[in-house]
Amino acid sequence: MTETADDGPEMLECSARGCRAEAAWGLRWNNPRLHTPDRRKVWLACDEHREHLEGFLGARGLYKDTVPVAELLGEADASGTDRP
Fold it and tell me: Which end of the chain has fewer beta carbons closer than 10 Å to its terminal beta carbon, N or C?
């Protein structure tokens, strides 16, 4: 995530290595060896890297689902937590 001068989020960036594009998708995943079943970690993805990152997580049995970033931000605001 890029930060502004006042430390507020300016743009959510794709999690793909070397990519600085704005994220459009939140890929929710969970490592059952480390996390409780209801816990969800999130990687952010641009349109270009969405399928690749879903495949990476899926091949390892970690992938749960993909949602638009706007939905993630709505969940964060509703729960009173920080943005992803």
Answer: N
